[in-house]
Specification:
With about 325 residues, the chain is of the alpha/beta class. About 30% of the residues lie in helices and about 25% in strands. The protein contains 11 helices and 12 strands.
Length: about 325
């Protein structure tokens, strides 16, 4: 079996605030193989984006800090890397598409300058060659009139076009791993579909591994090979996309799927999981999902569950499978 391109082991990222330590990512382990698309899903506040930022070592310090674990990229641990070492990897070997392109693109520089700058930082090419490569990359992400668009400023482009520019920047140096943090948020459904098709095309043509951070299970079904479900800073379920969507094993995953609108059913009100995601670390004992779980029993409020393999390659963090008296998720 080949070594995974990214192997995260027991990652812990804490935020140190006036209210104490907040374990935003708490003992998270996962891997991504070459050319694989891994989805990380969950509600806002569950630790998805902090996991992505930790992988790139972009968690702002203070208040955030990686306090434990390893981030093995091509077999080398990035955790002890200096900022100078990380700059050589970011954009070159690991690309990232941020959630809101308008805040990620510099409003005072043209599109062409921003895309070509990413190329010139990592590849020893002239200004003219970098501009040519930028135009070619902008064409590849499906933007018409690329020769004219390179001289435009971000505010002159639509949200979908700005997101395509972000993808062009992220892919300009042909990274081995692309991290996409909610890449289709705030885009209309048609543009969403185009962006997802573009990412699948780049994945197939360049063999780029993708870490897709999203709260949208439709995006997961459309693009991902495997899925990780996170809740309150921990992984609560992991498996291939078909197993997770067809046969969810954790009550939280089941709740997320039940909350999706059904095309063939007319309902007055959509289902929602009761309560809210707790602040990481605020629940001191037992399962962090227990207060919202309709399957919870006494032990759920006392014991912290471990990840258990339900079927080969499909794991869930739930006492229903390990404690006598637990019932299967139906």
């Amino acid at each position: 079996m080949t070594q995974p391109i990214l192997d995260v082991k027991h990652l812990k990222t804490y935020f140190f605030t006036d209210d104490g330590e907040i374990p935003a990512v708490d003992d998270v382990s996962f891997s991504i193989s070459e050319g694989e698309v891994l989805g990380i899903v969950g509600e806002s506040g569950c630790g998805k984006s902090v996991t992505a930022l930790s992988t790139m070592k972009l968690v702002p310090y203070p208040p955030g800090k990686i306090v434990g674990g390893e981030i093995l990229f091509k077999g080398k641990d990035l955790v002890p890397y200096s900022e100078a070492q990380m700059r050589k990897i970011r954009g070159n070997e690991i690309g990232m598409i941020f959630q809101e392109p308008m805040t990620s693109l510099n409003p005072v520089f043209t599109i062409g300058r921003q895309v070509s700058e990413a190329i010139r930082i990592h590849k020893k090419v002239s200004k003219e060659k970098a501009r040519e490569m930028a135009i070619d990359m902008i064409k590849q992400v499906g933007i018409a009139r690329a020769e004219e668009i390179v001289d435009e400023y971000p505010h002159r482009l639509s949200g979908g076009m700005r997101q395509r520019v972000m993808i062009a920047m992220a892919m300009s140096c042909e990274p081995d791993l692309l991290i996409a943090d909610e890449p289709t948020t705030a885009l209309d459904v048609t543009i969403q579909a185009q962006i997802l098709d573009l990412m699948k095309k780049l994945n197939k043509e360049h063999g780029t591994a993708i870490m897709m951070i999203t709260h949208d299970l439709g995006v997961v079904a459309e693009t991902c090979d495997r899925v990780i479900v996170m809740y309150s800073g921990k992984i609560v379920e992991e498996g291939d996309v078909r197993s997770i969507l067809k046969n969810p094993q954790h009550p939280y995953t089941k709740g997320l799927l039940e909350s999706l609108p059904k095309v063939h059913q007319q309902e007055e009100r959509l289902y929602s999981i009761p309560g809210n995601v707790p602040k990481p670390g605020s629940i001191k004992g037992g399962c962090s999902f227990a207060p919202r779980c309709k399957y919870a029993f006494d032990d759920c409020f006392k014991e912290s569950p471990e990840l258990v393999e339900i079927t080969p390659g499909h794991t869930a963090r739930c006492l229903l499978y390990t404690v006598e008296g637990g019932a299967e998720v139906g």
